[in-house]
Design brief:
alpha/beta; Rossmann fold; seven-stranded mixed sheet; 9 strands; 36% helix; 24% strand
Length: 206
């Protein structure tokens, strides 16, 4: 059993971006009750955001293969408002019993470019089914605009992604906003973030 945080997987990118992301989440989620994080990974975001958003309940999730280390971090350094992570594969039936009836927010960081296009479509379908009316959806990561990379580093990153998995890749924001619109989400804000990333804030209008 892991009994110290230094034994857990660590992402330097999460450590670098958690501060700037939190600034935006404190504004966006100030009136929310419960937020589901999809693709919690190492759990560094989960523990940081839950600790700094004490007014809401933070629900971590990821594919089953990540849960052991994710829940170890939550147990070691989590707060009272951070729930144990549950398994969620966007392509399978979502665990409805684990999703609160009070769920009014979803956050996901650096996931859509890892997923295949069919997984991205399933992500939005699942979010649409799970979230309450007037909910908030926040997605962090790199995006293309009108099919163009926003930086040379993103172009290189996209090439690396596709070498590892031809079905992955940086997504066009126009496609993402169209998928969101199918679930009654409107893009409220597109925030420039460090390292050529964006933070997309969608609001549900039903």
């Amino acid at each position: 059993m892991l009994n110290h945080v230094s034994q857990l997987p660590f992402s330097q990118a999460c450590e670098n971006n958690k501060g700037p992301i939190l600034v935006e989440l404190q504004r966006i989620f100030q009136h929310n009750q419960q937020v589901l994080e999809i693709g919690s990974g190492t759990g560094q975001h989960s523990v940081h955001f839950a600790a700094n958003l004490p007014q809401l309940t933070w629900q971590a999730s990821d594919q089953n293969s990540y849960l052991t280390h994710l829940n170890a971090r939550i147990e070691l350094v989590g707060t009272h408002n951070l729930l144990p992570a549950f398994g969620l594969d966007v392509m399978l039936d979502w665990p409805v019993k684990m999703i609160s009836a009070q769920l009014d927010g979803v956050f996901s960081a650096n996931t859509l470019h890892i997923m295949s296009k069919s997984m991205v479509e399933a992500f939005f379908q699942g979010v649409g089914n799970a979230l309450l009316p007037k909910a908030q959806l926040v997605i962090y990561g790199p995006f293309n605009y009108q099919g163009q990379y926003s930086s040379e580093s993103n172009a290189s990153f996209d090439e690396w992604l596709k070498q590892n998995n031809p079905q992955s890749g940086i997504r066009d924001i126009e496609w993402i906003t169209a998928l969101a619109a199918q679930q009654s989400f409107t893009l409220i804000n597109d925030v420039e973030m460090p390292a050529n990333n964006r933070l997309l804030h969608f609001g549900r209008h039903k």
